[in-house]
């Protein structure tokens, strides 16, 4: 999230593409990214997922409240970064084609959690990150970009995760800038 916000400011996405990071929304009030977003002068909001536990359908109630907050900002793209909630098909469909995520593996390999551990257990020689469009099927949307890192002898999941994260910080802003450039060109 911070890499995206900084890229938007440093590369002047507003002037180049007519786009900016409008807000940072979290499902946890304690998320570190909220303080960073505020430091960067971005609007922040929290939709605490635990607040919907008593609802008949907690996931749908959370997603409805989340969509309400997101819609206030009229986003061109909705970018997920460290948002560790599985979104309902209805939420995904609401932002169809505009919902983008980054995942710490070379999809389609290792969808879901524990990506680095699973890559090491499988004996992979490379790992990486994938930016993809979000679809109702977890981590299976169309791939927009990938970055590859080597798996080094003696690697731990933490060491591999650190190298992948460095690539995520480069990859995600580059892919988003490309999407915004395409959208600006298509608009005329």
**What is the mean predicted local confidence, pLDDT?**
96
Structural class: alpha/beta
Please provide the count of β strands.
6
The run of helices and strands is HHEHEHEHEHEEH
Termini separation (Å)? 29 Å
**Residue share in β-strands:** 15-25%
CATH class: Alpha Beta
Q: How many independent structural domains?
A: 1
- Which parts are unreliable, with pLDDT below 50 for 5 consecutive residues or more? none
CATH-level-4 superfamily name = Formyl transferase, N-terminal domain
> How many distinct helices?
7
Mind summarizing the main beta sheet? 4 strands, mixed
CATH topological fold name: Rossmann fold
Shape: globular
Residue share in helices?
A: 40-55%
Which architecture name does CATH use?
3-Layer(aba) Sandwich
Main-sheet strand order equals 3-4-5-6
Please explain how this structure is put together:
- The chain is an alpha/beta fold and 188 residues long.
- It has one domain: Formyl transferase, N-terminal domain (Rossmann fold, 3-Layer(aba) Sandwich), CATH 3.40.50.170.
- It is built from seven helices and six strands.
- It has helices at residues 2-10, 13-17, 32-39, 58-71, 89-94, 115-121, 157-187, and strands at 23-26, 43-46, 78-80, 99-103, 126-133, 143-150.
- It has a four-stranded mixed sheet with strand order 3-4-5-6, with helices on one face. A two-stranded parallel sheet has the order 1-2.
- Helix 1 packs across helix 7.
- 28% of the residues are buried.
